[in-house]
Design goal:
This protein has a five-stranded parallel barrel. It has a four-stranded mixed sheet with strand order 8-9-7-10, with no helix packed on it. It is built from one helix and 28 strands. The longest helix has 17 residues. Strand 1 and strand 2 form a beta hairpin. The chain has 350 residues and is mainly β.
Length: 350
């Protein structure tokens, strides 16, 4: 064979190898590598598992589900300056049985597969009825010290033992995270959030859903929910902030130098097992109860428009009115400020 033909054949074989974008695992499964420090992954419907990875890049293992799963397409490439993977769903109606019968949500989806903010066509995801029977389950492998963003509209997100900087954004999905190390932010439109055995700063924001925390240590822990209960135990944070529009807040075995808890309507219970330097509690309607060690020391300012005030601690009273108590417990090194529109206030010694 003449040399020029041998060279052409070799180049053609090399081109085939270089241009192949993925490694096919089977007809419905694929594996993708996303380079860059903070890639983003988008999927409308399915299960998403985020787990530790190796090497220097985020890897996504994707499996199509449903009778129409083969109709899904995958797009990769730069998006707003970062690597991305996006699952593209044709059509405006998607059926996902795991969502539950009579469950339905609408969101706007752009042609590139992203769905945060405004813009794009309106897509309806329902648990039954007619539509595209398709979903994608993703396993996202994040190397230690890496950053990544995962975005899911409907389904469930599970994060396990990830060491890095992680952003989780979901429209209508429950999120469970355990064993994380590093900064993690969870933003859910509707769904419950649970975070256990984590180390690092944590931010949780949910429009509607309960938040459950256990065994967390971080410099800053921030919880916001429009409607839902917040429950936590074994929680240590230099700064703790909990805010809910409507729901009870129940925190036990808490160690925090600075804590702020606000609820528009609901009870507040705080059980402190360490130093509490400053605390501000506010509820429009509900009781406020603080349980603290006998060593508690703070200037106190307690106000309730309709309710009683009870303290197991000796309070040196500076001012006492019908609905307000100002004074000092111990040498007054810290500060406790409590306000409730309607409800009792109790300071209980452990």
């Amino acid at each position: 064979m003449p040399p020029r033909y041998r060279w052409s054949l070799a180049a053609a074989v090399l081109a085939v190898v270089v241009l192949r974008p993925i490694i096919s695992l089977d007809a419905q499964s694929s594996r993708y590598t996303l380079t860059g420090n903070d890639p983003a992954v988008y999927n409308l419907v399915g299960q998403m598992r985020v787990e530790p990875g190796s090497g220097s890049d985020v890897v996504v293992e994707l499996t199509r589900r449903g009778a129409d799963g083969a109709k899904l397409s995958i797009e990769t490439g730069p998006l707003n300056g970062r690597a991305s993977l996006r699952v593209i769903y044709p059509g405006d109606r998607i059926v996902y049985a795991a969502f539950g019968r009579r469950s339905q949500t609408q969101l706007r989806v752009r042609d590139d597969g992203t769905f945060e903010g405004r813009g794009g066509r309106e897509v309806t995801v329902s648990g039954d009825g007619s539509g595209l029977d398709a979903a994608a389950d993703l396993r996202v492998l994040v190397p230690a010290g890496h950053a990544a963003s995962v975005n899911l509209a409907v389904g469930r997100v599970t994060v396990s033992n990830v060491d890095g900087r992680l952003t989780v954004d979901a429209s209508s999905a429950d999120v469970e995270a355990s064993g994380t190390r590093g900064w993690i932010s969870v933003d859910v439109g509707s769904g419950n959030v649970g975070v256990t055995d984590g180390q690092g700063d944590i931010h949780v924001d949910t429009g509607s859903g309960d938040v459950t925390l256990s065994g967390l240590r971080g410099n800053e822990v921030t919880i916001e929910t429009g409607s839902g209960n917040v429950t936590a135990t074994r929680l240590g944070a230099a700064t703790l902030s909990v805010e809910t529009g409507s729901g009870d807040v129940h925190l036990t075995a808490v160690s925090s130098a600075d804590a702020r808890i606000e609820t528009g309507s609901g009870n507040i219970e705080l059980d402190v097992d360490g130093t509490l330097r400053t605390f501000r509690g506010e509820t429009g309607s509900g009781d406020v109860t603080i349980r603290a060690p006998a060593s508690l020391s703070a200037a106190v300012d307690i106000e309730t428009s309709s309710g009683g005030i009870r303290s197991d601690f000796d309070v040196a009273i500076a001012r006492r009115e019908e609905d307000r108590l100002v004074g000092r417990i111990g040498d007054g090194r810290g500060r406790i400020s409590i306000e409730t529109g309607s409800g009792d206030v109790r300071l209980i010694r452990n």
